[in-house]
Amino acid sequence: TAYSHILTETRGKVGLITLNRPKALNALCNDLFTEVNDALRKYDNDSNIGAVVITGSQKAFAAGADIKEMKDNSFIETYKTDFLGHWAEMTSIKKPILAAVNGYALGGGCELAMMCDIIYAGEKAVFGQPEIKLGVIPGAGGTQRLVKAVGKSKAMEMVLTGSVNLNAQEALAAGLVSKIVPIEELVDETVKTAELIANMGQPSVAMGKELINKSFEIPLSAGLRWERILFQSLFGTADQKEGMNAFVEKRKANFTNQ
Ligand code: HXC
């Protein structure tokens, strides 16, 4: 598929999506997000792919939703069309999505990163929710996912001032990202982790992802029950037999996603 605002390539079992609107610092216009969702859906349906990486440029992962595109919107049209509601489609993707964040991840850019399953940060990454300075608030998880990632006080500071950003070190300390990588190596390093995941059995990876995401939404007892049932269900897969036999036979497991 030819896309206008993103680049896609496959590296081994990993699908790599690069946001590519450099002149606008990857501002997330409506069409760009539609393309991201389309690429994600295709990778999700491609049995040769096991995980996806989303990245931007070295200067900007994404500087937010496109301010120029939305500045004249009215309430009634944004409400009737559920403006930016389609962003959430990516949360229904089964395969793991890793974000490789270099440079600015502001507003919707930070929210896009937080909709991913794992975030790696380049050394100069900046995370922030500056929407309040535009007279609005975050609209794709900045008041919800950010709290879970960095706690209430820091999230309040970020969202209510719009000026308190997290650098890579602060994001790591807060738990928003799981690793800091030198700028040049960020994409390769993220693809490496994605490849590691892609070589595991896809049913167990998808269940692990789903359960961890569920933990944000359902009570502990229900989450634990779901976890045990899905764990038990994996004994019906060839991958479980292969994984455990490989351990006993002291060899590397070769999963077939069955
Ligand atoms: C549209 C944007 C943009 C954005 C940058 N640009 N961010 N265009 N929407 N969010 C454009 C600029 O207008 C400019 O184009 C070009 O990109 C380069 O940006 P500069 O500002 O010249 O670069 P620099 O001085 O290096 O500053 C970088 C920056 C700044 C600090 C990231 O661009 C900035 O503050 N951007 C806005 C960040 C923001 O407020 N994000 C939240 C958006 S609201 P021209 O053509 O003028 O040269 C949001 C709501 C989410 O995300 C809701 C989700 C549902």
Q: How would you sum up the global shape?
A: globular
Percent of residues in helical segments? 40-55%
Estimate the strand proportion. 15-25%
The kinds of small molecule bound in this structure are: hexanoyl-coenzyme A
Global mean pLDDT:
97
Keywords: Fatty acid metabolism, Lipid metabolism, Lyase
Family: Belongs to the enoyl-CoA hydratase/isomerase family.
Organism: Hesseltinella vesiculosa
Enzyme class: lyase
Characterization of the model:
By secondary structure, the chain is an alpha/beta fold. Helices cover about 40% and strands about 15% of the residues. It contains eleven helices and ten strands. It has helices at about 30-45, 65-70, 75-80, 110-115, 145-150, 150-160, 170-175, 185-200, 200-215, 220-235, 240-250; strands spanning about 5-10, 15-20, 50-55, 60, 95-100, 105, 120, 125-130, 165, 180. The strands form two sheets. The protein has a six-stranded mixed beta sheet, sandwiched between helices. A four-stranded mixed beta sheet has the order 4-6-8-9. It is globular. The two termini are about 30 Å apart. The structure holds hexanoyl-coenzyme A. Hexanoyl-coenzyme A binds near residues 25, 64 and 65.
Keywords:
10 strands, 4-stranded mixed β-sheet, 258 residues, single chain, 6-stranded mixed β-sheet, binds hexanoyl-coenzyme A, alpha/beta, globular, 41% helix, 11 helices
